[in-house]
Amino acid sequence: MASCSGCGPGYRSPLDAMKGPREQIVYLPCIYRSTDFNKPDYLATVDVDPKSATYCQVIHRLPMPNLSDELHHLGWNACSSCFGDSSKSRNRLILPSLISSRIYVIDVGTEPRAPQLHKTVEPVDLYWKCNLANPHTSHCLGSGQIMISCLGDPAGNGKGGFILLDGETFEVIGNWEHPGEAAPFGYDFWYQPRHNVMISTEWGAPKILAPGFNPADVMKGHYGSCIHVWDWTTHRKLQTLDLGEDGAIPLEVRFLHDPDATEGYVGCALSSTVFRFFKTPEGDWAVEKVISVPNKKVEGWMLPEMPGLITDILISLDDRFLYFSNWLHGDIRQYDITDRRKPRLVGQVFLGGSLVSDGPVRIIDDPENIQQPSQRIIKGRRVSGSPQMIQLSLDGQRLYVTTSLYSAWDKQFYPDMVRDGSVMMQMDVNTLSGGLTLNQNFLVDFGKEPDGPVLAHEIRYPGGDCTSDIWI
Fold first, then answer.
1. How many other β-carbons are positioned within 10 Å of the β-carbon of residue 287?
2. Would you say residue 37 lies in a domain?
3. Closest CA to 176 of 141, 217, 207, 202
4. CA neighbours closer than 13 Å in the CB half-sphere of residue 375
5. Domain with 167 in it: what CATH number?
6. Is residue 225 part of a domain?
7. Which reaction(s) does its UniProt entry say it catalyses (predicted)?
8. pLDDT tens figures, 242-297
9. Taking the C-alpha atoms of 135, 117, 388 and 375 in order, what is their torsion angle to the nearest 10 degrees?
10. In this structure, how many other beta carbons lie within 10 angstroms of the beta carbon of residue 267?
């Protein structure tokens, strides 16, 4: 960390963060909902230090006090947005539950290798104080508050609003957005204070997506295709940018890490596209499609064409590379984005997926002319499921990958993964010219957990990472 008299959590800049220490442990939510095991979800602590005797092992499990929460994405009580505040410490992990609407606050400061439950925010607080439910993305703010995006209202209808938590007591303060200004759908968000802007994305109506995915629901308008531009200071919604069919189901949104940047990218799941959003000379915001993964014509699948289904994206801290996962096709891609408008594919590896050569699906026509990949076996374990959540080391040299998306969709598309458990893998990254290589010596097998196979989702480092830290 750069020297700083009385500095707070995180790093002074993204480039300083790249010089931070190598990750030694990671936290992952592990989900039992939709599996055959009626057990609480839990937070797993995994040893990722190659020098450790417990390398690639789960070294601690913190079960939640309730069943069927569907832990999903994780956030922090403080990050690099509070770097200048010496009173702040990154010592609480925020765990929103996608289905139960509970929010767990976890103490990771007292003993980082053995986290403990600090507080539970019950769903009724979200319902009555904010008329919101299904919390998703959590970001800490420079003010010390915590902001969490939500997918819907308490009845399961789509509603893209935001709740604020007090950063000390973790009590629900109320809504961030003004009354009547919530978006039709919610999912992810990213803010950029130097340009007084926040951008949010859309998934779909919780009561529609909760049991599984039906393509007909897209045509019925139950899934989103817009991103929303908000005034960060006044909390007013300024613009809605409709991405149309080419931007169906825009999920993860990422600004460039440089806090002076006026652009970023959003991955659109169903259309398998990446859009660049940017500030225009006139001062408003616009979008352009910069990456498109073509559908593959197939036999033996639910539809005659299979989309890639881009489900997670991230940008390296030096803003040089963009990564994303194609959860149906089964590949991880790395793009050089030094030319922001023309990303260039420089790395690609298949890690399971629906197109494996010994599976039931056959490619009839592929515009990319990629041969069906062989099954992926690591340390004797076949990878069931497909690459989904990704996290990059601070120095950009290691990309971690897990395979679970959301338990009900896992069960629909990859029942073998629900049966066998998900896995965590690691790719070595060529940070000079680009390129990805699977580390054959790294595997965390969540099929061997003490209470039965489990679904592991998002990855967080104790010291922050490139998908949770925001610089102001």
1. 18
2. no
3. 141
4. 12
5. 2.120.10
6. yes
7. methanethiol + O2 + H2O = hydrogen sulfide + formaldehyde + H2O2 + H(+)
8. 999 999 999 999 999 999 999 999 999 999 999 999 999 999 999 999 999 999 99
9. -150
10. 30
Which residues are paired to 138 by β-bridges? 148
The structural domain count of the chain equals 1
d(Cα 133, Cα 151) in Å, to the nearest integer? 7
Domain enclosing residue 238, as ranges: 137-456
In contact, 129 and 139? CB cutoff 8 Å: no
Question: What pLDDT, in 10s, does the model give residues 152-204?
Answer: 999 999 999 999 999 999 999 999 999 999 999 999 999 999 999 999 999 99
First to last CA, the chain: 17
pLDDT, position 88: 86
CA dihedral (2, 435, 350, 326) positive or negative: positive
Q: Which among 406, 396, 35 has a CA at the least distance from the CA of 203?
A: 406
Backbone angles phi, psi at 123, to 5 degrees: -55, -35
- pTM for the model: 0.97
In a domain, 115, yes or no: no
The pLDDT score that the predictor gives to residue 82 is 86
Q: Report how far apart, in Å, the C-alpha atoms of 397 and of each of 68, 76, 392 are.
A: 36, 23, 7
pLDDT in tens, 200-221: 999 999 999 999 999 999 999 9
